């Protein structure tokens, strides 16, 4: 690296990406770095500290870079501001030793180790040779993770018991998928015959390490943390909320906003429910009716193809009218998620060179029948015009930004806020005039409002307002949160349980959907006021999608100026 005094913030940011990939090959694989395919990160306390030290050194370089001539340009300023905010938030989480109790039903080091295999290149014998090497690295990665959790136990930094029990169940499923072999063995069975013995041996060792981790979690970790709280309290919650939202939130104001959205959406849902099942009583009675009698797709492969068609149609009809899409951004794939994960659909971004396209993932949870009403707006969210258009556009314009802004600098509330804005946009554009689909969209919006209410409410043990139809005056608990969520969602019981476990696993993340959407809508409103009749929604969309990531602190200001 050249002398720090000669670097600009974007160069510091991109040097950080290179250095982090060397420490974290999982990140490298998601970015499409072929050399990462055979390795896994050090998940031990030493590995966590190495990444934190890189962040500290990068912040010191950024201090110097921001004094370099040219650092005050808009593009350099925006990148430097993002890099400083993200690394500072990440260090706050690390220094609170949250990595020593990272247990739950998603987003743990163990999930990262397993999930990276689903995006590792596997088209050639050379690819599979790297996969075999990565499989051989699984036991060490799980051992490092266990070392981190053991240190957490010694320091009395306990994970929440409920997500821990769920995690033990997931490990059991990974160890035996029902065919007498584990998930890694299932995965390796798709490899070439020339590497069969090598892949099978490595996969068996990986499965054995899953069993070892599962047994330790069950026999040592779970009994030790018995009686620990499932919620995190205001101080830890505020730290995580900063991490996921890129701003220091007024949590009480955000809680009140969640309730305001709840009441607004409930009124709209009742109107749509009357069109479907007059006299239904509640919108969720009408949604239950749709579960049985509404339009649906039969078959797992059939629903995958249908979702692909939905995204393809959205691209064809939105490109040139409300967006201007590069050819490589137009490609997105629908996939079925591997079993043993959380119940919510998700999206994975394309590799930097687009050799691996963006992909949406549907967890089937054993189902073969899929009602349409709760899929349409969800795929506008996960695919087009939601996550895919934003994250693929970031990759497309990375050369004009910085590699960091287009990849690692992502702020959850920015991305989830855009995706929820995308659902609303499709409603505004008339794609959800069908009563079934519109009620499904409103149900999804209600779920995001309920997330703000219960995620903040239960972790801070806030009081339920007097005008609530649900337990007014009582204080939130995880049990009340699950009851409330189940009563205000069309989702099945296993989904609701998975969702509440998710909120206990990653506090502060679930509120970013609604709060991020609010920021996107406010930014658009201010830009429209600024331009008046000359406001061009397509131009605004493309400028907004091409500015890279920003935390909510900065998002409204930047969107307003476009």
TrEMBL record:
It holds the Pfam family DUF885. InterPro entries: DUF885. It comes from the Bacteria. This is DUF885 domain-containing protein.
